[in-house]
Backbone:
């Protein structure tokens, strides 16, 4: 029997899915899961995803890099936020642990870990690695789009479409209307992925924050060849 | 200031929207809102939308036509279900009241009536009438897609895209990613609306029920020129 892959367009729809025995692929293209892939590939040894800002007080800044983002911005008082460029080729992070809280991505991760067989972290930066990883597993797959405060986001839906195309090509079945919608976006974006994805409301929302370089960084394909996964309460490689 | 129009892809996302002072446009293309438009244009004087089957017992079948659908089928024991062809050119329904419960559409209506300024009923069958109606109002608009048991459906998202295109053409602003997604579908379906819409999982799900004629009926444009609306607990013209 074929393995199945489906897409959950928002964490607020996750209750509609039975996650038992499934691998949940969490994506938050702009920017949390792109940051996670980048940080772990640049020397961070472990990421602890936190949903609430108040929990950050439990961590000592001499032991951890503490990163906090809300509404696209670094939270006041913190040095690190949700920019992959904070971590990319930054030698000072080598060997350290990262505590990270973001508007959407960390919430999606913490919601899925309750019932899923496994939770993995996906972005354009490691899309082929994710597809290969799922090929070698026996489990059905739910791609969870982190969205924006519960609302569906263009970039995550688009990413899910790209990943579903890959999964269908290696034998997965994917028949829901949400899957169809996301795969239509892949066709629509064929001529220019970056231009298409930057029509996202995330870009408009963050226009004054000067994070265009971040968004373009997040739209690179396959610069990393591994798949971060959730191990107890931490994300590791 | 421009009026705004947005799309809520599923009743399970409705909590994300502030409905105060807004007109909620409920659509369930396959088939509840198409049925409502058809019934009211063929002599039904009032429709009472019911969420639960158990509430049907409150209505006497000598006073009302009682129609019940679940999972695409007429509920056992009832003569009428969720087929527009039950009502189209059926003289025996003239002047009667209809009590209707369906899998998705009646739930969406009953969810929106709590907070919205007004709830109206929309389908391809009356799309231009709906657009004209909204043009003449001062309110912002939320198009609520009924979906399938909380899941996003292709046909409702596609309908919302068509309606949003019309609303944008008459001066509304619509900037969310969900709006963008739905309007992409309009482009994708340009060459053949019926063929495109029948890729819906609703078609696959109901393939053995012989309702293909229903689905094609529901994809006709502008055969009715009026807008059903919710008045207290009933839908009327």
Residues:
């Amino acid at each position: 029997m074929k393995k199945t892959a489906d897409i959950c367009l928002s964490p607020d729809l996750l209750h509609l899915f039975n996650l038992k025995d499934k691998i949940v692929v969490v994506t938050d293209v702009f920017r949390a899961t792109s940051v996670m892939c980048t940080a772990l590939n640049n020397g961070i040894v472990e990421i602890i995803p936190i949903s609430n800002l108040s929990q950050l007080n439990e961590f000592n800044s001499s032991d951890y890099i503490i990163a906090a983002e809300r509404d696209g911005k670094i939270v006041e008082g913190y040095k690190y936020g949700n920019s992959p460029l904070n971590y990319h080729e930054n030698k000072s992070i080598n060997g350290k642990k990262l505590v990270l809280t973001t508007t959407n991505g960390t919430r999606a991760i913490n919601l899925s870990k309750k019932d899923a067989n496994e939770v993995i972290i996906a972005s354009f930066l490691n899309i082929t690695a994710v597809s290969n990883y799922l090929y070698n597993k026996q489990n059905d797959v739910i791609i969870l789009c982190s969205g924006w405060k519960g609302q569906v986001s263009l970039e995550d839906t688009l990413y899910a479409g790209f990943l579903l195309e890959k999964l269908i090509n290696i034998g997965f079945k994917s028949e829901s209307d949400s899957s169809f919608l996301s795969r239509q976006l892949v066709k629509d974006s064929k001529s220019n992925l970056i231009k298409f994805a930057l029509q996202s409301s995330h870009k408009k929302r963050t226009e004054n924050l000067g994070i265009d370089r971040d968004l373009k960084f997040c739209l690179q394909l396959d610069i990393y060849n591994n798949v971060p996964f959730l191990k107890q309460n931490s994300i590791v490689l």
